[in-house]
Amino acid sequence: MASVTASRPIQLSTSAEPKAQTPTQRVIRRFRRHKAAMVGLFILVGMILYVFGGAFVYSEAYANFNDTSIRLQPPSAEHPMGTDRIGRDILARTIYGGQISLLIGVLAVLVEITVGTAVGALAGFYGGLVDAVLMRLTEAMLSIPSLLLLLVMAKFFSSRIPDVELLGRTFSGSVIVIILIIGLTSWMTLARIVRSNVLSLKETEFVLAARALGLPNRRIIMAHILPNTLASIIVSLTLGVAGAILSEAYVSFLGLGVQAPTASWGNMLTEAQEFQIIRDAPWYWFFPGLLILLTVLSINFVGDGLRDALDPRSDKKV
Predict the structure, then answer these.
(1) Could you tell me which of 114, 84, 111, 109 has the C-alpha nearest to residue 97?
(2) I need a labelling partner for 161 at 20 to 30 A (CA). Which of 27, 104, 137, 181 fits?
């Protein structure tokens, strides 16, 4: 009796098929392949943990406590970064000074992004007279040396604002002045970038469809146009923080920035230039300068990585 065997269809393996990735997953993948950005992110996270986690180890009162009997002591087990010219612990001072420097950087960039995005979006969307007026204002601001304007305005306003109490800390009025001045003198480049993006986006099909549906201009700008310029804004945010930290260091080094009793990395460098301290006590300026260098470099590396990761054409290995 002949046996009959049923034939089974051959199934092909589909395990080799690539999985579809969401846009967020693709951005993360590109960012993780950017080696410099990952190094910068590691350093930046370490800096944030240092300046904010260190506050749980050293109090602000200890950071401001002075003992002239131990002035200009070199690094030791008791004072790992040495002491300053009136006997304060430099390690504790860099922790609380770092908080101020990062706070100024972040808040100044928020001011910059708010003004720059608003000006660029309005100029690009409405065009005509609005565009002409706003862009001439932008060009006029670009023609003024921002550092010179920052120095003049800091000199004029820093002593006119009283100290501010916030979250149990006392901030000199100069902190608010520096934040506003840096933010209001650095928005122009972002405004031009946003304007160019809005000019190309406002003629796309989804914007024309939103207009045909009768949506108000404010909603079209906020819900349809600005989300598509988010990549440029995020990159400007990261790179702007580094620029704001450096600007604060410039004016504080010249004695026109953050004033006592508030510490910052910039005014620590100012103190270090007096009484031949640069030569006789190098630890006084080395550690604040090193922290500024590492923070700015790490933020720039992260900004470069975000710029490549958010570019949809950047799907190559970096």
Answers:
(1) 84
(2) 137
Go through 117-148 and write b for each residue having 16 or more CB atoms within 10 A of its CB, e for each that does not. Answer: bbbbbbbbbeeeeebeebbeebeebeeeebee
Rounded to a whole number of angstroms, the distance between the first and last alpha carbons of the chain is 68
For the beta carbon of residue 315, count every other beta carbon within 10 angstroms.
11
Over 50: is that where the pLDDT of 106 sits? yes
Distances (CA, A) of 146 to 151, 181, 185, 186, 297: 9, 9, 6, 8, 22
Q: What is the pLDDT of residues 118-142, one digit of tens each?
A: 999 999 888 889 989 999 999 888 8
Q: Residue 194: is its pLDDT beyond 50?
A: yes
Both tokens of 17, joined, read 């098929």
pTM of the model as a whole: 0.81
Give the CATH number of domain 102-294: 1.10.3720.10
